[in-house]
Specification:
about 700 residues; alpha+beta; six-stranded mixed sheet; elongated
């Protein structure tokens, strides 16, 4: 009996019901409202319109396809017969209601569906309805208990998935600064940029289900090193031909430009890589946070030791050391279960997009379970040895002496508690810093911590095992001498450096001390940019319980380098005291950071959607030096895209005021982030929040 064509059913239209689906799937923030954005493991509805009423024997198949040549065999083609019933393990579609020629269809994806961009078509008998512009994005679902990225706590989901602004912590242990950062995962083209990266990753459809593999692939693609990914890393101090890493205020402009040009964006350093990876992960639906480790070890030999070499003046030598200690390093934690590992390693996983070490042939790092780092189980995938060393290595100071034309190394001190401090991320639901060091390591010196280090050592470079054995602490000095440094830890740029080195001679012994102290300008990765000065003096302690030695350096000594290097620099002071009578050595190290006047953002507390308001940026140069070639970089998510406004030179005492007329296009709490850069000051951040009402 075959039906003749005239009576066979034709599809006339598909309504993706974006608004109601987006609300249920927590995707209404995404900029794109022509497509359907849903999360896996959760039902969504479609409305189909036919050329006549649906009969019981009409066959209707809803199809979702990926890529140019979709095939059912490799899961790039999904066919759902509306009559086939339900099965939680695979995609299915069922009729939930018919009314005249319209039919409401409930589509359910499995909780391990492959994430990506699908094209929708409908087949009825010989007719295929394929409009070509009906796109369904499928994302990970932290709201779905069966999804491996499930996050049970609602305020955490709000922070780690839906929040599009935050802070990335930078500076030094003594002076931690929260730098405002716009992740911007819902902005225009950002989702498409993530889909483009997924395609670039060449991951097969079957593994696009797995957040472990997807997050690892994204850690590789956010840097440009092997795969012309998103960002070029550059630590040279000169950034002509690109944007200086300190000038960015957020991730969206980087991902948008990358999506438009398909070429790597210049330039990034660790916090930029991390900010972009947080945006990509949150955009795809994987809970993520940017994490800063202060005094972060980069241990190239995998021996849990970072060697630092000083010359006879106490200056750190750049060229002798392949290991380094970064003042801070920023990576990411992503939240997921680890069915690929033994039990007990679910939860936060460290991933790092900054290109540091090659892993399986390319620059990628993680995901590595934070619990494995804490317990020293560094055999677990991925890259746990490297991350363990970043937070646990010991730091060894050596002095390079020239004796009769030969170099001789003298060990000055070994520090077991100097690395992996104040590990920081933004607190959940609050604009404050949360210290998560305890998630990464047991308390320094506790039996659990020593046990974790011993366990890690048993898996590390066995040829270097001797260095992992617990080093015997140096005996207390026979000459009861102590060193300290007095002075401001934060220095106004353009002011002289005035420090006092204090030798405490508590035992009132009679000693001859050879003292050297050096002052160097370095970048956050520990690279020496200039030697600013040193003192060398021999002091007699007889009858003096306290000896003070001034270390004074004029501002001119550092201003030239600060101006010519486009990175934010800091000052490191190293002191070495050698007691002649006992041949004992004491050392101390100090970090000074520059401080700057504030950048103020002024605007009303509230505004109405689509009604203009004025936002002002005010800055007074209270420094003693002019700031040359000033630029103001401003961005307000849901209000305006990133803009750069030239401000020329700002003389000492001068005030600048810049205004922007804003027309908000989204309701809710929105933030405007501003940054002032100049030749002298690399980045002063300011921000303010405004509530936009309907």
């Amino acid at each position: 009996w075959g039906q003749d064509d005239s009576s066979s059913l034709k599809t006339l239209g598909v309504d993706l019901l974006q608004k109601q689906n987006a609300r249920l799937h927590h995707t209404e923030e995404y900029h794109d409202n022509t497509c359907l954005i849903v999360r896996r493991g959760q039902m969504f509805q479609l409305k189909l319109t036919f050329d006549r009423e649906l009969k019981d024997n009409d066959e209707v198949v809803v199809q979702l396809s990926v890529g140019e040549k979709p095939l059912e065999s490799n899961e790039t083609l999904l066919s759902m017969n509306l009559r086939s019933g339900q099965d939680a393990r695979c995609w299915c579609a069922n009729i939930s209601n018919t009314s005249g020629k319209e039919c409401l269809v409930a589509v359910t994806s499995p909780a391990d569906a492959a994430v990506g961009k699908y094209f929708l078509s409908v087949t009825t008998g010989p007719h295929i309805y394929n409009p070509g512009n009906k796109v369904v994005y499928v994302l990970f679902n932290p709201w779905c208990e069966a999804d491996t990225v499930f996050m049970p706590n609602d305020t955490e989901r709000l922070e780690y998935v839906l929040s599009d602004t935050g802070y990335i912590y930078v500076g030094s242990i003594q002076n931690i600064v929260g730098r405002p950062w716009n992740f911007g995962q819902f902005e225009e083209d950002v989702l498409d940029s993530c889909m483009y990266l997924l395609d670039k990753s060449k991951l097969k459809q079957k593994v696009r289900k797995d957040p472990v593999i997807v997050s690892r692939a994204m850690s590789a693609l956010v840097n440009a090193n092997d795969d012309s990914g998103v960002l070029f890393g550059n630590w040279s101090g000169t950034y002509s031909g690109g944007t200086s890493p300190v000038a960015w205020t957020g991730s969206a402009p980087i991902l948008q430009k990358y999506y438009k040009t398909k070429k790597p964006i210049c330039f990034g350093q660790c916090w930029v890589f991390s900010g972009v990876l947080t945006a990509v992960m949150r955009c795809l639906g994987i809970p993520a946070r940017s994490v800063t480790n202060f005094a972060s070890a980069h241990d190239t030999q995998e021996n849990l030791k970072v060697d630092i070499y000083l010359n006879e003046r106490g200056e750190k030598l750049n060229d002798m050391t392949s290991d380094s200690v970064w003042n801070f390093h920023v990576w990411n934690d992503v939240w997921m279960k680890r069915p690929d590992l033994p039990q007990g390693f679910d939860g936060w996983q460290a991933v790092d997009a900054t290109p540091q070490e090659i892993s399986q042939g390319i620059y990628q790092c993680g995901p590595c379970p934070v619990k494995a780092i804490r317990s020293g189980e560094v055999y677990l995938l991925y890259d746990s040895k490297f991350v363990f060393a970043e937070v646990n290595a010991d730091r060894v100071f050596w002095q390079v002496k020239n004796e009769n034309g030969k170099q001789k190394l003298v060990k000055l001190r070994e520090e077991t508690k100097a690395i992996g401090k104040s590990i920081s991320t933004k607190a959940v639901g609050k604009n404050t810093r949360e210290d998560i060091t305890a998630q990464y390591k047991f308390p320094e010196g506790s039996p659990e911590e020593r046990k974790a280090v011993e366990k890690a050592c048993s898996y590390l470079n066995s040829s270097n095992l001797a260095v992992c054995e617990s080093t015997t602490p140096l005996p207390p000095l026979q000459a009861g001498i102590q060193l300290e440094v007095e002075g401001e830890k934060a220095l106004w740029l353009g002011n002289p450096i005035n420090l006092n080195i204090i030798v405490q001679n508590s035992s009132a012994g009679v000693w001859t001390i050879n003292l050297v102290a050096s002052c160097q300008l370095q970048s956050y990765t520990g690279k020496i940019e200039a030697n600013l000065g040193s003192i060398k003096q021999t002091v007699q302690t007889e009858g003096k319980p306290v000896i003070q030695l001034p270390l004074n350096i004029a501002a001119d000594a550092y201003m030239k380098t600060v101006t010519s290097v486009e990175d934010e620099l800091l000052i490191k002071v190293n002191i070495i005291a050698e007691i002649q009578e006992t041949n004992e050595k004491l050392t101390d190290e100090l970090t000074l950071t520059f401080q700057y006047p504030p950048l103020k953002v002024e605007m009303p507390e509230t505004a109405k959607i689509n009604e203009d308001f004025t936002c002002s940026f005010i800055f007074k140069n209270t420094l003693s030096i002019p700031l040359e070639k000033c630029k103001l970089h401003v961005e307000g998510l849901g209000i305006f895209k990133m803009e750069t406004i030239g401000q020329g030179d700002i003389m000492p005492g001068r005030i600048i005021k810049s205004q922007i007329i804003c027309a908000p296009n989204k309701t809710g709490e929105k933030k405007i982030v501003a940054k002032l850069t100049s030749n002298q000051v690399k980045g002063i951040s300011g921000e303010k929040t405004i509530t936009i009402t309907a």
